[in-house]
Amino acid sequence: MTTEVRGASLHRLRKAAVRARYQARHTSLAVGLGLTMRAIYRTLLPGAVAPPDTKAARELVRRFRELLRQDLENVEAGYYPERLLFQFPYWQYLQRMPEDLADLPKLARRKRVNAYRDLPEGVDSDRYPRYYLRNFHWQTDGWLSRRSARLYDLQVEMLFGGTADIMRRMGIPAVIRHLQGVKAPRILDVGCGTGRFLLQLAQALPVARFTGLDLSRPYLREAAHVLEDVSDLSLVADNAEAMPFRDRAFDVVTSVFMFHELPRAVRRQVGREAFRVLEPGGLFMVTDSAQLSDSPDLEVPLMNFAEVYHEPFYREYVRDDLATWLAEVGFEVQSSTPHSVSKVVVARKPE
Fold this sequence. Notes:
Shape: globular
Strand order of the largest sheet: 3-2-1-4-5-7-6
């Protein structure tokens, strides 16, 4: 056996081992978290969740497998490093799990009495739009405490069976392709939250200049910790409806899991602001919840989400096709692709 043949064989074996380890890890994670969430629902929210019909259940399984396959293919295509496949912070989340579980009875109480304005004392209500001053997902403190920020990523991963970070990075390939040949691209992430998407994007694009915009100061403090190793980073606390940036300031604008939290008119205003701050020819990449336009078979699971969690704008969101209204505010939509219970819409500002 020649050295080249031996090397190729070892490469194939390693690739197969990585695939097997990755798939086994995420399958077991999805099963474990799925059983945990089912037990929580039955204990604290009996009867709140309608089980998906057989067709929807099969579609969810198919999409889960397709999501894992696409993640592996993105690594093999060089869009982001292999280490992202195994970045799930098990130990960190296990440490935070007791605090999160202890908070679940409070979540259930808020849902029972519809206490969606149960927020921390001393919040400066004049600083935030009214739609923001609520505890989305019934979570303690809404978006307005460091404790909420500390538990948020764990809560989202529990909800999505360990696939939240995978769905986030489905938007990275479009960004990488768009920025080929750009030496120091300027990237704005709108509604950056705790910085999980920026963390992954920075590992795929270490030469980029990153800006994160979010209305929650506590979440930005958590993001500063998450992103402490990102060298060229600015975090800005402000409202995306009137972004504090000059026209044409960025090559790429991204937004991940934000638009479904906004009222219809606000979604469009944020879209217009993203258009304004982009360079002509710039890219707008949105990752958010699936919608009925692309995922009609998931209507029951999507409506379950709106029912169980405090998502006041979600039922309208799933019928307000992202690609359609992005075109209405001036973008040229290049693609709209579902990924599990999310979707990625890629749009371009005309030159």
